[in-house]
Amino acid sequence: MPTLVFGVLLYAVPEATNIPYQMKGSLWLMVSVTTLFIPMLSVMGLQYMGSIPSIHMAVKKDRYLPFGMVSLFYVIITYFFYAKLNFDDLTVFSLITMTGTVILLTIVTFFWKVSAHMTGLSGVLAIIIILSWKYPGSSLLYPLLGTIMTCGLVASARLYLQAHRPGEILAGFCLGFSVCFIAFYYYLLT
Fold first, then answer.
1. Where along the chain do its domains lie?
2. What residues have CB less than 8 Å from 173, skipping those under 6 apart?
3. Which residues span the membrane (predicted)?
């Protein structure tokens, strides 16, 4: 989801950051590699080594190691962006918020198997809503509509595949949306 958020921040709302246009592609690629591809390959590696039975993580206990590992990785990446790269405050804040959401999801996972898909998508939805309020002249209508439709499609697919019960879908949605909405609201609008 950070890949989607940074795509919106860098390209749909260019006035939100002071990152030069020449660096936006490199930054977006760095975020994509560090928050999407490396964690994805790590989870596939855990499955290959037999540490988890499947990348689907159908049972709650199968999620402990991958979610914990991804949380630690997000913390390291966020620290790296904050301490070493010196990007603008909004990019670092965005990573801090998303890292906090991943950590909360990991903690909740020890007690309840909520939908990580819905946590991430609803977080993106909340961020796009706040950005559209802060920057009303930006072209966020299509990303907003696309995210709403994707939330519905993913929630329906998770229910159809019997990967989650309705309460787990709702809890995941509420977790991601509330954390990201509150954080971005207070950071950008107050």
1. 2-189
2. 115, 118, 119, 121, 122, 151, 155
3. 28-52, 64-84, 90-111, 118-135, 141-161, 168-188
